[in-house]
């Protein structure tokens, strides 16, 4: 079929369709019939030979959840800063709660263990891509607890008990730091973005978050009780 004849037939089909003399289906079928009558040149019918696949470049193996170094450094910095801000928050909350034996043995652990991973909360909320998994979350929370403990110990040795001596300084920068880091590590094991659903009232508190948090509070409270007993008995005396 010549090109001008094909164009004329197509124009006729379009004209009939515009005047409503053909349904869309009929016009479509006639178009297909015309196309089938067209003898395509041999080149158009030839099927190109697929090129041989190019060997993929080997990808170096990486661990699942591996992070870029910049994200790792960023996560560490936020976790440490969160622990520092947690000191301020804990101080204000403990002032509002008042003093007494309840605060020392129960209130302080409840408040501090909730605030020490402040940086991890921020990472989970704003930059979840900076966290590689559950263990990474716990390690970052432990860094926040370590930061909290260092600042707290600085306050103790410089403001509260500057007369404590070298033994007191050594104690403050060893045992309490281990306790704070360990407690925050426990809390971090239970942290995930589901905690925000609970905080917003959209879901119950995740069981793992609750259980690990309570374990950290128990560890912290037990430490406070043991240290107080040792001080009262004279076994822990930095006089």
Question: Can you give keywords for this protein?
Answer:
239 residues, single chain, 2 domains, 71% helix, mainly alpha, 11 helices
How would you portray this structure in words?
This protein has 239 residues and is an all-alpha fold. The chain has 2 domains: 3-38; 69-233. It is 71% helix and 0% strand. The chain has 11 helices and no strands. Residues 39-65 have low confidence and may be disordered.
The dominant shape is rod-shaped
Oligomeric form of this entry? single chain
- Let me know the average pLDDT: 82
- Weakly predicted, low-confidence segments: 39-65
Query: What percent of residues adopt helix (DSSP H or I)?
Result: over 70%
Class based on secondary structure composition and strand pairing = mainly alpha
Number of helices: 11
Domains (count):
2
Order of helices and strands: HHHHHHHHHHH
Strand content: under 5%
How many strand segments?
0
Major sheet characteristics: none
